[in-house]
Structure formats: C-alpha cells, structure tokens
Specification:
By secondary structure, the chain is mainly α. The protein is about 65% helix and about 0% strand.
Length: about 70
C-alpha cells in the first residue's frame, strides 16, 4: 500500500503520477460541470456578465459540447 506510512506518496515518479491521475479523475468532472453550467448561464440565459476572456472561454467550452436530439 503506497500510503501505509501516513506520509502521502513516497515520492517515486510512479507514485506521483498515480496521485496526479487520481486527482484529475476527481477534479475534472466537477470543473466540466462548472464550465457547462457557466456557458449555459452566460450565453443562453444572460443571467450574469463575465469578463471578455471568461466569456470567450465559456463559449469555446460550450461549443465543444453537443446534444443529440432523439
């Protein structure tokens, strides 16, 4: 077990890579949800105003998503 000593990752490259991948699997879905909701609120509902750079980033992220109509 890599965390048996209680000090976190042992510091080897493999342990740090495993910790980074685990962190990405936990953080990325929540970040994606935030971007999706943000782009919807900004572009569709106009419920908030964003800085121009954030508006462009949300528009690009929103354009990468799609919805399949049944």
């Amino acid at each position: 077990m890599p965390f048996a000593d209680g000090d976190g990752p042992r510091g080897t490259l493999q342990d740090r890579a495993q910790a980074a991948v685990t962190t990405a699997f936990v953080v990325v879905p929540f970040a994606g949800l935030g971007v999706a909701v943000g782009s919807c609120r900004l572009l569709t509902h106009r419920s908030f105003t964003a800085a121009p750079a954030l508006g462009v980033a949300l528009a690009v992220a929103g354009s990468m998503s799609f919805s399949r109509l049944a």
